[in-house]
């Protein structure tokens, strides 16, 4: 569904990311891992068109650059890490902005907004002023917004999550990850998420891509990819690995 | 939880106030006239009848002096308020105001340049065009100075405004030095912002500008909301960000340029009005823009009424009054922002 070939992202003469070949099929939940500065954000920005890059990004067989902006907005959504909105919109109004690229009747729009806010566990915040919410709450409101944005996709949509759990408490972290798994399995959405907690990756068993110094160093099942040896190589920390009833955990 | 007024009753209320203001503006002033007669005089002029019972000079006062001035006040107020609202959205900053960030001063330099240097016959079109071009250049300058990845920096915005205003002050001073005494008097009143001398051409110009701006802005209201989320977020929602920014900068500069050309520097309308509307009806541009236009029209009309009647038969420049009201308001906003900054640790 998304095919990346010979991608090169540079800034100020420095190479930030180089990817020869990467394919994300429909309905897959993919974790993007790597230390700070490894090129994770560069990859998300290259896909979402925020930074210039060389190479090919084919989305449903057509270069992402050539997608019509409206059409593209219905198929590619990005959850930002933090929000700079300072005007006193209510949380519901922020979620309603996700309706912008869509063509829904008023009632259908309201239903979609409500359903997304339930999914992202923020319906109870609907009438609150957005700038007054905590960082984690703001991010869940944005999550609901990007979910709304994708409801009218005619082809498999792509959801990019930039650190979707780093501002969340433990319970919400797992809610969001379960939601992402559900979106991938039930609605066939391809989810690419920047994550930091390797145990969460092991727990939800999604495909992992490990980036280090701008290159892809591993791609595959978490059990195969996240070996203590590789973790030490990439992150400079050697964890202990435990096995419990068919699962691994890292300490 | 937020308390908001629904938009429709707010609009109805504003229209009511506007009507009362219109009648008062037509009847009050140095020469007092019966309300029915003044309104009938307008009817007469429109339908070529003879019902007002006003004397010849009274008709002239109503039709040639008070009516154009009243219409110009409403239009300029509406234009300034909408341009303020759009600029605040564009700068993603509630403190942006054409006067404060220097766009009005920039436009004023352009206007003065045209007033002093060009023949009087050209001025009807030359003054607004020149004000527009100078205002546009100033907006682009201030925007490029103040923008950063996290929106726009208030400090840079205000500093740029101070610098531009100082430069413009010097420029206007320089130009006034070379002009004759009558024009000098004209210039100084105009610089303080005054609707004195409103004529039909100005009203027509402001009307065309207002209708065009209001329609165009309204079409961009939804994307402007998304823009407040951040530039990348808006882009991801399918908004053609770069094109929209340029379009709105040009339109806002056009609005301010025409307002300045018609009535000089009338400050703070663009700051106070959108802020009041946001406080009472929320920040959604689809409601904010039309309500700001209405509130701006009401505010400037009433300010001008006060400017004409407070020291009658003399009159105050209306820009002085709006500054008198607006400056303390601006300080209060700054104090509020400072509280937010200290909370966020920035």
TrEMBL record, chain A:
One of its GO terms (molecular function) is ATP binding. CDD domains: ABC_Iron-Siderophores_B12_Hemin (cd03214). The keyword Methyltransferase does not apply. SUPFAM superfamilies: P-loop containing nucleoside triphosphate hydrolases. The keyword ATP-binding applies. It holds the Pfam family ABC_tran. Keywords: ATP-binding, Nucleotide-binding, Translocase, Transport. InterPro entries: AAA+_ATPase (IPR003593), ABC_transporter-like_ATP-bd (IPR003439), P-loop_NTPase (IPR027417). Residues 2-238 form the ABC transporter domain. Part of the ABC transporter complex HmuTUV involved in hemin import. Responsible for energy coupling to the transport system. PANTHER family: HEMIN IMPORT ATP-BINDING PROTEIN HMUV. This is Heme ABC transporter ATP-binding protein. It comes from Alcanivorax profundi.
């Amino acid at each position: 569904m998304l095919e990346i070939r010979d991608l090169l992202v540079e800034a100020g003469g420095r190479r930030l990311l180089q990817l020869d070949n990467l394919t994300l099929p429909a309905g897959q939940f993919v974790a993007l891992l790597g230390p700070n500065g490894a090129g994770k954000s560069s990859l998300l920005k290259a896909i979402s068109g925020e930074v210039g890059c060389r190479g090919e990004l084919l989305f449903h067989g057509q270069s992402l650059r050539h997608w019509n902006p409206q059409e593209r907005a219905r198929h590619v959504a990005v959850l930002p890490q933090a929000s700079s909105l300072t005007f006193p919109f209510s949380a519901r109004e922020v979620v309603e902005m996700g309706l912008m690229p869509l063509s829904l009747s008023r009632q259908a729009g309201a239903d979609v907004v409500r359903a997304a806010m339930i999914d992202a566990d923020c319906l109870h915040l609907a009438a609150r002023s957005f700038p007054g919410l905590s960082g984690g709450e703001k991010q869940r409101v944005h999550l609901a917004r990007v979910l709304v944005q994708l409801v009218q996709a005619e082809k498999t949509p792509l959801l990019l999550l930039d650190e979707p759990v780093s501002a969340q408490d433990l319970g919400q972290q797992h809610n969001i990850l379960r939601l992402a798994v559900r979106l991938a399995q039930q609605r066939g959405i391809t989810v690419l998420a920047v994550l930091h907690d390797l145990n969460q990756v092991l727990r939800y068993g999604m495909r992992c891509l490990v980036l280090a110094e701008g290159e892809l160093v591993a791609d595959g099942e978490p059990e195969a990819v996240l070996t203590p040896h590789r973790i030490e190589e990439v992150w400079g920390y050697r964890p202990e690995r435990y096995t419990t009833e068919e699962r691994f955990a890292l300490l | 939880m937020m308390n908001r007024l629904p938009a429709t009753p707010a609009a109805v209320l504003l229209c009511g106030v506007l009507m009362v203001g219109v009648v008062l503006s037509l009847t009050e002033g140095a020469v007092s006239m019966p309300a029915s007669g003044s309104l009938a005089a307008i009817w007469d002029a429109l339908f070529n009848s003879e019902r007002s019972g006003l004397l010849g000079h009274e008709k002239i006062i109503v039709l040639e002096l008070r009516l154009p001035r009243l219409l110009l006040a409403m239009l300029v107020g509406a234009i300034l308020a909408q341009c303020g609202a759009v600029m605040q959205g564009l700068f993603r900053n509630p403190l942006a105001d054409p006067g404060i960030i220097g766009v009005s001063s920039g436009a004023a330099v352009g206007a003065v340049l045209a007033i002093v240097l060009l023949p009087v016959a050209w001025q009807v079109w030359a003054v607004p065009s020149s004000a527009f071009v100078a205002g546009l250049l100033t907006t682009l300058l201030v925007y490029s100075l103040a923008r950063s990845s996290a929106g726009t920096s208030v400090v840079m915005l205000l500093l740029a405004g101070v610098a531009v205003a100082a430069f413009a002050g010097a420029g206007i001073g320089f130009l006034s030095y070379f002009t004759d005494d009558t024009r000098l008097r004209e210039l100084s009143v105009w610089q303080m912002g005054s609707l004195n001398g409103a004529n039909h051409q100005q009203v027509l110009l402001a009307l065309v500008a207002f209708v065009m701006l209001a329609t165009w802005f309204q079409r961009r209201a939804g994307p402007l909301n998304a823009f407040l989320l951040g530039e990348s977020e808006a882009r991801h929602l399918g908004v053609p960000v770069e094109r929209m920014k340029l379009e709105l900068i040009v339109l806002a500069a056009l609005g301010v340029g025409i307002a300045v050309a018609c009535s000089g520097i009338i400050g703070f309308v663009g700051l106070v009005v959108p802020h009041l509307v946001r406080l009472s009806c929320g920040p959604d541009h689809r409601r904010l823009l039309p309500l700001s236009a209405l509130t701006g029209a009401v505010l400037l009309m009433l300010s001008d009424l006060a400017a004409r009647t407070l020291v009658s038969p003399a009159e105050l420049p209306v820009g002085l009054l709006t500054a008198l009201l607006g400056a303390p308001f601006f300080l209060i906003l700054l104090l509020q922002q400072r509280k937010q900054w200290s909370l966020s640790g920035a």
